[in-house]
Amino acid sequence: MKIVVLVKEVPDTYGERKLDLETGLADRAASEAVLDEISERALEVALAHADAHDDVEVVAMSMAPESAATTIRKGLAMGAASAVHIADPGLAAADLGLTARTLAAAIRRTGFDLVITGNLSTDGSGGVIPAMLAELLEVPNATALSSVEISDGSVSGTRNVEGGTMRVSAPLPAVISITEALPDARFPNFKGIMAAKKKPFETLSAADLGIEPEDLSVAMSIMTAIAEKPPRSAGVKITDEGDGGTRIAEFLIENRLV
Amino acid sequence: MTDYPADSILVVLEATPTGELATSAAGLLATASQIGTPVALAVTAPGQAQSLAEQAAALGADRVLAVETASTQSELTIPHVDALAAAAATVAPEAVLVSNSIDGRDIAGRFAARTGAPIAVDAIGVSRDDEGVVVRHSVYGGAYNVDSAATFGPIVVTVRQGAVDARAEARPVVLETLEVTASGAASATIESVEAVTETSSRPELRGAKRVVSGGRGLGSAEKFALVEELADALGAAIGASRAAVDAGYIPATAQVGQTGVSVSPQLYVALGISGAIQHRAGMQTAKNIVAVNKDPDAPIFEVADFGVVGDVFTVVPQLISALAERKR
C-alpha cells in the first residue's frame, strides 16, 4: 500500500508572521519556518500504520519554494520512505485551484492508495484542498477525521460535524484529512536523521507535471488588496488592591457590556 | 429556466442531523443579500425541504431550490455537490456562498474543482466594485485584511461562521424543485450519525456575543467551574486556552485560538490565560477584552482593554457578586 502524506512548511506561529505588502506573499524571512504540526500528525497516522504492516510505503509530498527542502526532509527523518517536492517559481502565487491541480498531478504520477492531509494548515486555514484533490483524483473524500482505521481495502473514521458525530468509511483509493484530535507525532531520532540523507528525494517542476501556471484561460482567485491592521493597543491595566472585581464590573457597565 | 435575476447569489443551506437549518444560514443569506438576490439551495432527506425553505425564507432567501434525496443520509459530500452543480447550471449565479464548516468546505472544494470555478475561503464579508464581487478575508489571526476576486466567472466563497452580524429581511416562501442527475462520483459512506443534543442553555461559542474563557491559571477541572459561573452571570459562552484543554479542564470543542475556534464577540473575558500568540490569534478581534491574570507580564495584557493583575479566585467572585448586586 502506498500512502502519500501532504506536508506543508508554515511560518512558526510562536513568532510574528508577516505578509509582504507589495506582493501579498508570505514574508518567509520574517519568521522561522517549520513543518506544520497538523502535517506531522498526518504523517504519524501513516507511519503508525506502516510500523504495523510490512507492505506500506509512506511518501511525504509538498508543493513549496525550493527553500522548504530542509523542512520536507524532516518527514524523511521521521520515517517516510521517500519525498516529492514540487518547487517552481511559477507556482509562487498559486491560488487554491492551481495548487490542487498541481498536487493532483503529482499524486497521480507517484501513485497512491491513500492520501492523508491535515484538515487546516495554520497559515492559510483554507481546508478545501482535500476535497478538491478527491474530486480531481476521482476518489472519495473522508475529511476531518478525529480517529482513523486503515485496512487493506478501506479507510474509516469518526468526524465531529455540526450538531453530531458521524462514522464514515471509504473504499481505497481515497483522500482523507485528519484533525488535531489525533496523536502527536514522533520525534526524528539520530538514526532517522542519518537514514534520511540516503532516501529518495525527488524535486519536480510544474512542467514535469504538465502544469502551466500562467494559463490565463483558467479562472483564478487573485488578491486585489492587502492592508496590515494597526496592532491593538493595550488599555488600562491595574493591580488588584481588593477592588479588582468591582472595577471590572464598573468597566463593563460604563461600556454597556452588561 | 432563464428567469433568475442576473445578480443571483447561490447560497448552500446546511441542515443539522435532526433536519434543522444550521445556524450559519442567517449570516450566509444576509451576506448574499448585500450583493444580490439570494437564491438558496436545500439538499435534504425526503420530506424536509418545505420546513428548511420556510426557515430560509424567514432569513431572506428570495427563493429556495429543493432537492430531496435519501442519498444525503448515506453518501458524504457527493449528493450536495451534484445538486450544487445542477443549481449553478440553472441559476448562473454571480457567486456561490457556502458556510466555512467541515461539510461546507468539502462541498465548496469539490464543486470548485469539478467546475473549474475559482474559490476564496474563510471570508468575513463580500462587497461589490465596478468589476464584480470582492471577497474580504482576515488572515494571520486578524493581523491583515486581504481582498480577493475572480479573474472571471462565478466565484465560490466559504464564509466564516459568525463573521456576519447582519440579518436580511424575511421574504415570502418560494420553493422550486430542482432535478438532479447523479454524477456517480465515488463517495465515502455515512455509516451512522449521532446527533449531539444540546443540554446547556449557554450560547454556542462560535458566534457568541460574549465569551468567558479560562486557562491553566484555573488550576484544575473542578476550579474551572468559576469560568462557568461568570459565563452564566454574563449570559456568555465558555471558551478555553489550549493549555486548559490539554490539562483536561474542559473538552477541546471549547478551545479558542489558532487551532481551535475563532471568535469575534462584543466582550471577551480571559481568566488565567497568559495569551500565547496562538490564543490571541483566535480572539483579538473581539471588540472589548478583559483579562485577569496573576502574572503582570502576561502577553494577554498587551491586547486587553481592561486588565487586572490579580488572583482570579478573589477578583472573579467579587465581579460576580457586583453583577448580581446590579441586577437586584
Write structural notes for this entry.
The complex is a heterodimer of chains A (258) and B (328). Chain A is α/β, with parallel strands linked by helices and 258 residues long. Chain A has a single domain (2-209), classed as Rossmann fold (3-Layer(aba) Sandwich), CATH 3.40.50. Helices cover 26% and strands 29% of the residues of chain A. Chain A has a nine-stranded mixed beta sheet with strand order 9-8-7-10-6-1-4-5-11, with helices on both faces. In chain A, helix 2 crosses helix 5. The mean pLDDT of chain A is 93. Chain B has 328 residues and is α/β, with parallel strands linked by helices. Chain B has two domains: 8-189, HUPs (Rossmann fold, 3-Layer(aba) Sandwich); 210-327, 3-Layer(aba) Sandwich (Rossmann fold). Chain B contains eight helices and 15 strands. Chain B has helices at residues 24-35, 49-58, 78-91, 102-115, 225-234, 242-246, 277-280, 312-327, and strands at residues 8-12, 37-44, 63-68, 95-99, 119-129, 132-139, 144-150, 155-159, 175-177, 189-195, 210-214, 237-240, 267-271, 288-293, 306-309. In chain B, helix 3 (78-91) packs across helix 4 and helix 5 (225-234) packs parallel to helix 8 (312-327). Chain B starts with 7 loop residues before the first strand and ends with a helix. The mean pLDDT of chain B is 93. The chains are: A alpha/beta (258), B alpha/beta (328). Chains A and B meet through helix 3, helix 4, strand 7, strand 8 and strand 9 of A and helix 4, strand 5, strand 6, strand 7 and strand 10 of B. Chain B: The electron transfer flavoprotein serves as a specific electron acceptor for other dehydrogenases. It transfers the electrons to the main respiratory chain via ETF-ubiquinone oxidoreductase (ETF dehydrogenase). Chain B: Its cofactor is FAD. Chain B: Belongs to the ETF alpha-subunit/FixB family. Chain B: Keywords: Electron transport, FAD, Flavoprotein, Transport. Chain B: InterPro entries: DHS-like_NAD/FAD-binding_dom, ETF_a/b_N, ETF_a/FixB, ETF_asu_C, ETF_asu_C_CS, Rossmann-like_a/b/a_fold.
